[in-house]
Specification:
mainly beta; 6-stranded mixed sheet
Length: about 110
């Protein structure tokens, strides 16, 4: 059974950094493209970043490009999202996902 468990969220001031982790089980991350999406209060899901199953190609939403980095530790079967230069508009619940599954999310709150 596939499980995705996010962690690393928290409350930070604008300009700060966080690293989100997504521990995967029930499948191997090298066999699946994965992505991070987020949901701001009162809004729908928004694509943040993705990585192909090869790990070669990464994609970012324009709003986070240059500030966020997606990465993967194959040995730990874990996906990461390194977030720098956080802005108040980055506030939301962050989910890691495959095409078929999504975790429970981790809350990120950025204050001014």
């Amino acid at each position: 059974q596939v499980h995705l468990v996010e962690s690393g969220g928290g409350s930070v001031q604008a300009g700060g950094s966080l690293r989100l982790s997504c521990a995967a089980s029930g499948f191997t991350v090298t066999n699946s493209g994965m992505k991070w999406v987020r949901q701001a209060p009162g809004k729908g899901l928004e694509f943040v970043s993705s990585i192909t199953k090869s790990g070669v190609t990464t994609t970012y939403a324009g709003s986070v490009k240059g500030r966020f980095t997606i990465s993967r530790d194959n040995a730990k079967n874990t996906l990461y999202l390194h977030m720098n230069g956080l802005k108040t508009e980055d506030t939301g619940v962050y989910y890691c996902a495959t095409n078929e599954n999504r975790g429970q999310g981790t809350q990120v709150t950025v204050s001014s």
